[in-house]
Amino acid sequence: MESVSSPLRCFGECHTAEKYTDDGVETVTSVEQRKVERSIQEVVSVYKQIHSLPPTLLRDQHYQYLKKGLRHLSDAYECLDASRPWLCYWILHSLELLEEPVPTAIASDVCKFLARCQSPTGGFAGGPCQAAHLAPTYAAVNALCIIGTQEAYNIIDREKLLSFLFSVKQPDGSFVMHIGGEVDVRSTYCAASVASLTNIMTPTLFQDTPTWIVSCQNWEGGLGGVPGLEAHGGYTFCGMAAMVILGKEHMLDLKSLLRWVASRQMRYEGGFQGRCNKLVDGCYSFWQAGLLPLLHRALFKGGDSTLSLQKWMFEQQALQEYILLCCQNPAGGLLDKPGKSRDFYHTCYCLSGLSVAQHFGNMDLHHELIVGREENRLVIVFSSLQAPSHPVYNICPEKVAQAIQHFHQLPVPVPAQKEGSSACNTTTDHS
Amino acid sequence: MFYRDRKEWADLEPVPQDDGPNPVVKIAYSDKFTDVYDYFRALLKNDEKSDRAFTLTAEAIELNAANYTVWHYRRVLLQALEKDLREEMRYITAIIEDQPKNYQVWHHRRMVVEWLNDPSEELEFIAEILSQDAKNYHAWQHRQWVLKEYKLWDSELEYVEQLLEEDVRNNSAWNQRHYVISHTTGYSDPSILNREVQYSLKQIKKAPHNESVWNYLKGILQDRGLSSHPGLLEQILELKETHCSPYLLGFLVDIYEDSLENTSGDQVEVLSKALELCELLAQEKDTIRREYWSYVGRSLQMKYCSDDPSTTSSQHESPILGMKP
Q1: Active site residue A116
Q2: CA A289 to CA B43: how far, in whole Å?
Q3: CA of A205 to nearest chain B CA: how many angstroms apart?
Q4: Phi and psi at residue A365, in whole multiples of 5°?
Q5: pLDDT at B263 (0 to 100)
Q6: Which one of the listed residues A10, A145, A238, A283 is annotated catalytic?
Q7: pLDDT digit string (tens) for A178-212?
Q8: Residue A275 reports pLDDT greater than 80
Q9: Separation CA B154–CA B64 (nearest Å)
Q10: Looking only at Cα atoms, what is the longest distance across chain A?
Q11: Tens of pLDDT along A121-153?
């Protein structure tokens, strides 16, 4: 285990040289980038002067923020009124990363709430009495798997969930996010994730899906939301993770994907950008950095013998420093970049990314690199204890294993409904 | 005025949200929010298809434009009540201007355009949104759909060039360039390919540290093989003297790798140069990607190093131990 109580990368004398070179040609892109670098420089310089301590994850503060949010949210969250299962997942996953147990009563209350979000026609909605949608479905299933009790598992109506998935499946292999909704690669990940965890995969459910996902990989090496679009970290993670679940990751050009994602780490900030020539954002600590364990495993499976036995192919220390120094709100919660507000989405994905950056593992190996205090260590999002070890689901591996084990005892439901519902189905779907 | 106080709504019983006895992630909705959504739920429950329902959806949307259930219902009403779609276009235009980073608003616009079968306002509208944020992902997605669906390619390359004039680092614009050309002339025609290579080299000379243009250059040449493009290596080596960057060095690695892959015969020199560059990038020029460049070096070595036992790779051999670490 490697401990970095030694000098931080961002304190190094070579760090300033990593600042953006605009070649004397100022554009909106370079101006914005330099603004961010200046704010990072400010944070680092303040840290140098004030703190003699190593970087510290503000565990207690984050815990209080999360604990409160699990019950009550201010009216600032009205904009997430159609994403409440997400709030459950972001908060529960953050708590599990911090190794904070969820009291049994609250866990049960979450289960009951998510049951109210389940649509009578299958899948989960953003709130009670809303229409089913793949994103809250993904979040609800993940949240229930984190809780991991029989009560939680029993909430999911697997038969209806399968029919919901078929109802959003398109002939070209893609999925719309909800009846009458939009197509993009997030939907394939949401569908593959819930179908694999709850054991409702049928031979035809994902027919043509891998081919469709491959068509989202572009000239940059990353994946866009739909074919033709710019490569983007969120969509790339969804596409790659879906392919891993479907066992088809080798259909992608992994070398190009690797080059693209490795190039997304910012040389000065240490965090990741979502797209080339855009700004760093703490959430990409997971969407982008989380690709490297997936790629590592895919390349290893493909027979690559030159992979590192200790490190992911990104600068783990630099990412940890970015998260710890630049993405923490002193009152609890994590964020995009200095100057931005905290929220539960960024709390979840900054912590998830921190965990990826702290833990390397492949098959029997586990190598840790913890920046700052020992206590900064988070729970792993993958485990070397079981062969398929990767942050595909972004819930802790024990919970993944437990859920899979539970649902595999149950038979795969027989589909009552075939795919082919049109994306323009306008019948109201409500309770 | 709250809906609960309106006479014209007195016949409808509002449906409060039922979060259960011990709610979680409970949002402290404002009175207005609660009022509007209590009535929305009532309308939904009764499957009411009326003009007052239609009006209410706009209020619900204003309170939470991400509520996809409301948007869906609004679309049902648009059709059931045979509402004026031109007016709906005006409505959605205003909403998008106000909240351009929302999925639902763009999807709604797409539906209305499809129903009207009229894309005539789209390119100008999207350009307006892009003038405020030239990288808005939803805007570009909508634009690509319009171009493809209605075959409106004619002026797009010109538009892309205008955006690149304004910001040569706009990666979305570079992507759009690739999209337009791929869907029109394609890159197979040597004169097109050459035009694009020349355009790229010109932009590189202006701003050598712009990653987008280097990625574009590789992107358009990689299928044909970087090392097969005549004179390219020489041009890049020349640029190395005056316009060097980590991207240029990475590009050289790519050319050398392609050469190793596709050229027969002795490639010891090429391999050696490639490895040297990987080392330079890992140790000095692109240290944030140290692990990546080290891996690339090891992979090249593994793949192309001579297996002849009489030739030992001196690169990583320990002189004392006489064996590789």
Answers
A1: no
A2: 45
A3: 25
A4: -90, 145
A5: 86
A6: A283
A7: 999 999 999 999 999 999 999 999 999 999 999 99
A8: yes
A9: 38
A10: 66
A11: 999 999 999 999 999 999 999 999 999 999 999
Three-class secondary structure assignment of chain A: CEEECCCCHHHCCCCHHHCCCCCCCCCHHHHHHHHHHHHHHHHHHHHHHHCCCCCCCCHHHHHHHHHHHHHEECHHHHHHCCCHHHHHHHHHHHHHHCCCCCCHHHHHHHHHHHHHHECCCCCEECCCCCCECHHHHHHHHHHHHHHCCHHHHHHCCHHHHHHHHHHHECCCCCEECCCCCCECHHHHHHHHHHHHHCCCCCCCCCCCHHHHHHCCECCCCCECCCCCCCCCHHHHHHHHHHHHHCCCHHHCCHHHHHHHHHCCECCCCCCEECCCCCCECCCHHHHCCCHHHHHHHHHHHCCCCCCCCCCCCCCHHHHHHHHHHHCECCCCCECCCCCCCCCHHHHHHHHHHHHHHHEEEECCEEEEEEECCHHHCCCCCCCCCCCCCCCCCCCCHHHHHHHHHHHCCCCCCCCCCCCCCCCCCCCCCCC
pLDDT tens, position by position, A43-62: 999 988 887 678 999 999 99
Q: Which residues in chain A touch residue B172, judged by CB atoms under 8 angstroms apart?
A: 230, 275
* B292 at interface of A, judged by CB pairs closer than 8 A: yes
- Active-site position among B26, B32, B45, B101: B101
Q: Does B215 touch chain A (CB under 8 A)?
A: yes
Say if B111 is an interface residue toward chain A (CB within 8 Å).
yes
d(CA A341, CA A339): 7
The residue of B17, B38, B68, B291 whose CB has the most chain A CBs within 10 angstroms, and thus the best one to mutate to test that interface, is: B68
Whether the complex's predicted ipTM surpasses the cut of 0.90 = yes
Q: Across the interface, do B75 and A426 touch by the CB < 8 Å criterion?
A: yes
Q: How confident is the model at residue B307 (pLDDT cuts 50, 70, 90)?
A: low
